[in-house]
Write a structure and sequence with these properties.
The protein has one domain: Rossmann fold (3-Layer(aba) Sandwich), CATH 3.40.50. The protein contains 1 helix and 10 strands, in the order E-E-E-E-E-E-E-E-E-E-H. The model has no long low-confidence stretch (mean pLDDT 97).
């Protein structure tokens, strides 16, 4: 997902620039280690074909140390010490911060939805 943005703090690199903004490193705390690894809930925002049959609060699996701040391209967020973009879209480009292939039936639904689009 981070490749879709203009920049990433991971190596301070330019990316594709499809989405405005940059991806920043998560800040570790005693109760929120980095990388963020594990199951976390989705907060769905609006409607989109990629979200078909997903439910508010569905759990998906994350493994990441960098994240994008939610903006008008965000379709879903997750909370890890604050809201982070979990699914983004601009035109015909979608990205997920979580790993659909490791996210059980919810991830399988996201992949099926992508194939339907």
């Amino acid at each position: 997902m981070q490749l879709l943005f203009e920049r990433t703090a991971e190596g301070d690199q330019s990316c594709l620039g499809i989405l405005k903004g940059s991806v920043q490193r998560l800040q570790a705390t005693t109760d929120r280690p980095v990388p963020h690894m594990g199951w976390n809930q989705l907060d769905l925002i609006g409607e989109d074909p990629l979200l078909a049959q997903l439910q508010q609060g569905d759990y998906v699996y994350f493994v990441h140390s960098f994240a994008a701040t939610p903006d008008h391209n965000t379709l879903a967020t997750t909370d890890y010490g604050g809201a982070l973009s979990a699914i983004v879209r601009r035109d015909n480009f979608w990205g997920t911060q979580f790993h659909p292939e490791r996210s059980a039936s919810v991830g399988a639904q996201v992949l099926a939805n992508f194939l339907e689009v």
